[in-house]
Amino acid sequence: MAAERGGCSLEAVPLPPEVRESLAELELELSEGDITQKGYEKKRAKLLARYIPLIQGVDPSLQAENRVPGSSQATAAVSKQQKSRSTNSRDERFRSDVHTEAVQAALAKYKERKMPMPSKRRSVLVHSSVETYTPPDNHSAPPDVTTGLVEHLHHERPQVASVRGVPRGYHSSILETADGVPVNSRVSSKIQQLLNTLKRPKRPPLKEFFVDDFEELLEVQQPDPNQPKPEGNQMNVLKGEPLGVVTNWPPSLLAALQCWGTTQPKAPCLTALDTTGKAIYTLTYGKLWSRSLKLAYTLLNKLTTKSEPLLKPGDRVALVFPNSDPVMFMVAFYGCLLAELIPVPIEVPLTRKDAGSQQIGFLLGSCGVTLALTTDACQKGLPKAQTGEVVTFKGWPRLIWFVIDGKHLAKPTKDWHPQVRDASAEIAYIEYKTSKEGSTVGITISHASMLAHCHALTQACGYSEAETLTNVLDFKRDAGLWHGVLTSVMNRMHVISIPYALMKVNPLSWIQKVCLYKARVAVVKSRDMHWSLLAQRDQRDVSLSSLRMLIVADGANPWSISSCDAFLNVFQSRGLRPEVICPCASSSEALTVAIRRPPELGGPPPGKAVLSMNCLSFGVIRVDTEEKLSVLTVQDVGQIMPGANVCVVKVDGTPYLCKADEVGEICVNSGATGMAYFGLLGITKNVFEAIPVTAAGVPVSDQPFTRTGLLGFVGPDYLVFVVGKLDGLITVSGRRHNADDVVATALAVEPMKFVYRGRIAVFSVTVLHDDRIVLVAEQRPDASEEDSFQWMSRVLQVVSLSFLSFQAIDSIHQVGVYCLALVPANTLPKAPLGGIHISETKQRFLEGALHPCNVLMCPHTCVTNLPKPRQKQPDVGPASMIVGNLVAGKRIAQASGRDVTQLEDNDQARKFLYLADVLQWRAQTTPDHPLFLLLNSKGTVASTASCIQLHKRAERVAVALIEKGRLNVGDHVALVYPPGVDLIATFYGCLYAGCIPITVRPPHPQNLATTLPTVKMIVEVSKSACILTTQAIMKLLKSKEAATAVDIKTWPTILDTDDMPKKKLASIFRPTSPDMLAYLDFSVSTTGILAGVKMSHAATSALCRSIKLQCELYPSRQIAICLDPYCGLGFALWCLCSVYSGHQSILVPPLELESNVSLWLSAVSQYKVRVTFCSYSVMEMCTKGLGTQTDNLRMKGVNLSCVRTCMVVAEERPRITLTQSFSKLFKDLGLSARAVSTTFGCRVNVAICLQPNRLGKLAEQGTAGPDPTTVYVDMRALRHDRVRLVERGSPHSLPLMESGKILPGVKVIIAHTETKGPLGDSHLGEIWVSSPHNATGYYTVYGEEALHADHFTARLSFGDTQTVWARTGYLGFLRRTELTDASGERHDALYVVGSLDETLELRGMRYHPIDIETSVIRAHKSIAECAVFTWTNLLVVVVELEGSEQEALDLVALVTNVVLEEHYLIVGVVVIVDPGVIPINSRGEKQRMHLRDGFLADQLDPIYVAYNM
């Protein structure tokens, strides 16, 4: 490795031993993570510096290049792109040359860190050209990791499906996994890259600790001792200039309108433009007055319901007007004021699902709005119901829509005159505001406030009568309403209203109108200035010399300064004077807070502050230099409004006054602010208003101040500076960041054409008790997949760099972007006038409805508050553990079933030692007694077998084996049959001939490639000398198709048993000892290991006897079995038990349920079966397939009231949710709630627990014992290998159901997994079992004696060291319950938690995959199934998507979030696949290791693979 890293061979160079030793130490440090890659290379270069010249012919620059594979090409590509890029594509609105250069510098530092690119199936790509894809790497086939066989089966898919985007530097390099195994696959190369990006120096070892009460403590962020703290004096309340006394100032706004309407009726009030920029209508003051009167009269007198007037003074009325119709809006607004109604202006709802529309509806409902005013054109455009009426929008109250066009208004009668009152404290209008959470509130503004605000604006802006004002803003709310509808009327001004639609077509329109109308004032946003910059090249003849004020309404946005500067640069030559630009700050609650005054109005010179962003994140103001990487340059927003008092208070907690150098929330006290949040008294008291206090706690005023939601400070000359908004505030690890800053940094990364500049949303989501930054942007259609990914990874690196605390060495003080998502163009929810609806975007992100086309998650860098990794305690010895339990009064966790030696059937047990003898005895004594009845998919009997029939068929098979197969006693025979009576007959035929049978599932004809190798492997591993099968399967095994999957020439003798001669067997073989081998039981475990166990004759008969006693089986009984007959308890119930106990078995092959789901339940009902067995996969099939058909089944006469017990055969933790759903679903068909129970068995003992219900003649004696119990354990304690019982419903609780009653003759103990000492009651450990029917050992080719001894002949290290136990490999615990057993003893319940082989060791804790998978499945409705596994310490989550592929990328963030929240784990890789990809065995268990192998060999054909950073 060392040689590779240097890029040259060191073998040729004689290095002194001490240097080689130092190099080896360095290697070790790097491999253990004690040193970073960079540090390693530095030290290594130092060591080798003296010897480098000895290496001839190597260019030093090459050595550096080889160190980072693939980065040289990337660098070249980047520099090329930078040359070709045009400079004008940069967004001036968010522009700061210094910032951009700083960001580029930061990027240069980070170039070397290459991130793995996600791979995506071709069909998911929304828009990408073929050229941008890396062709699949067909020349290097990934190895078949699944078997370790030499041949690599590389199935090439059609080209299209297999195309992946892969970083080019990684095509054919062989990489090593963490285990040191070279893997040549694309998946592993990406994971390797991911691991490389995560390489960090290890932290010093943590002190040993013990957490009380098992609480896992999340890492609490300790304040950085070096963090900046405010040092200035406490600020005082700032007083604005007094409001001037004007002698002829009207007593109310309506009085002003009446005055101008009657004395200056011809004066122009408002000019409306169409989308071509043509003036379509000019409203005069006379017209405004007369039409407002008409509307007021109509509203009060002509609208009635049940002869009552519809409206009375004080009622709220919705104003629904498009942005293109200011005239009608103005008439409606003043008409409502004249009628003493309260207008509530809202946006026009376009569809039933508009972003935020539901919240607007909630506001209307809470305001009691019943009437909406609109225009004829607008009403026609609204969505209609079938009746022709406007639909009721989601969440809206029922509204009456009233069109206010002239023809619908009535002329007032001569004697009707409205009362034009003086301005009072009554509500004048309600303005809506949407918070960052998406909730909408109404802010009430009184008549007095409205008047005072007009007065203050007139004074601050120096408005005079008949001035012309150009308004580009939305006239329904905010500055657009205050300047363009209210203050303009107060001063008889002429407003030119520029609609948004015109700005979209012609961004210069507002400048042209300023020029045309010689406007003195223009009200715009930075966006409008930015747009006009992009379009100004063609226009030479515009002049802005008439402007005395250019009011920038969003001057409070820290990035507006760049738009202002850039605009001035271009338009200064066209008559724009620098002092004309007047940024202002406002908020919905406090209205206008501050505005910059031109010098002629007495304003001080404008200010600019260059602030350290790092200090700002701590709320401290420190002036910095512009050369710095992370600075924020802000401009002032002028002085506070006349007549106002302003102070700055702390953002959190009590509103203490801030110090002079501290950022806080600006609060205003004046007569010109909003009054309250409508109908929300509590929120008004706590959020809307505040009473600021000094450090000593003394209130600064007896009047409450209104909170503005603006964050800022007061600078020199009493100028107000705003650095952000409370709504855009993101607090990560105690540091505050502004969403706008993050947007600007993202845009400064690359002025490339990857994303739309104005379409970026930044918000925070709470994951694991802290805010996490999410950045969503719209991707341009022409941006290639790889380019976009490069941009995303750069943004992540730079954002985290820009917001670094450089003093803080520890990485905790870094803010990373948690998730960066790119969505297709035009898919983000829009706010009414362009812009992005942030709260709706956030909502979609959290609901998984955003549908991104690219996503990059960075939980590894962002999440720094995970609990400390668990450090194992020094092991407590087994002896002290036993003593500890005894001292604590705990019994040793040991339990057993009934004692078989005491039972009445001992004579029979001795006679029934060999199953071959039992079958012969039954054939003689009860020849015609039916034993088996096989059903086909139609529910009809396919075949039957009585005792004599089975005996005779077995004889024929034995003859064929001896004569045709020439087999000897003890030879192994593979039985390859579909489920049926043939399988059973050939099994007994083998016993009759003295051969050892092995049942094997036949290959699937449609899927030979994957199923036939397993058959071949079992035949080879079991050393079968002969295969017995049907003619059809025999042909299949020898077919051409089979030859492509396996070597068909090496099959042993294959005999078909379809037509055997009727020959009598000379003598039936009788074993010399009960310990002789009876059969081999082969199965593939969930971890993908094929294991065969040996079952002796003694164990076989003991197993049958235990099941017979537990389930009370005797010849008059009937049981139904819907299980696979090839291994474990399924095989025993299918092939052995009926012959032993004499009961009749109704056999239902699970495969038949695929064509007839109700087959099993119909059979149970038809034959009135009391006892039935099934698997979880059968139960799931019935639950999913028959969920909606219970009524049909009832009509067909299906009745399950006969079932006393339905046992699920499994080798896993009981699936409570599934068994409960099944019970609830079929309760309607008479299934008893107590009928369903579970069983537990494993490789070493196939039947440890069975839970029959109370039934039969022994019920009075209580042989069945109590019902299975359920306990709730703390999942977090379980990870620490501890059992902590909690109440149902408590957080992190996990329900565990008892696995059934322990069988007669079985003893169970719980042992420590490492010390092998016995554990106490309710302690988690490995389940060990001792029983006459334990398997006698593994049957393997390799003769792994050590494994055999460890698993089958284990002894406790302390306590009872004599008993021989078998280790099950399952974790569980025993718990003594309050219930009593048949013997009158207290009942011991066994709870299985999960397989030890399956558990994941992560962060020093033990996780069970099923727990993580359950959380993931709950995360989104489209997740059908999930499986998790680890690879090189990364958690890989595979989810099956049951929905459209556009939802695939939504799942990445949801999966990452839920695993973090519920399990404190960071997901390394999220793989989205099609339904049915996760392999499941016949018992319904997930084959996670097969899945893992498929993933590593790149054979899953995933829809998307996301590598979390």
Structural class: alpha/beta
Sheet of most strands: 9 strands, mixed
| CA-based gyration radius | 40 Å
Beta-strand content bin: 15-25%
Q: Name the average pLDDT.
A: 82
Oligomer: single chain
Helical coverage, percent range: 25-40%
Number of strands: 64
What gross morphology would you assign? elongated
* pLDDT < 50 stretches: 1-12, 54-95, 125-184, 200-215, 803-814, 1255-1263
Strand order of the largest sheet: 6-5-16-15-17-18-19-20-23
Q: Give the number of helices.
A: 44
Q: Note the gap between the termini.
A: 25 Å
Structure, described:
The chain is α/β, with parallel strands linked by helices and 1509 residues long. 30% of the residues lie in helices and 22% in strands. The strands form 17 sheets. It has a nine-stranded mixed β-sheet with strand order 6-5-16-15-17-18-19-20-23, sandwiched between helices. A seven-stranded mixed β-sheet has the order 38-37-46-45-47-48-49, with helices on both faces. α6 (97-110) packs across α22 (739-749) and α22 (739-749) packs across α23 (785-802). The relative contact order is 0.07. Mean pLDDT is 82; it is low at 1-12, 54-95, 125-184, 200-215, 803-814 and 1255-1263.
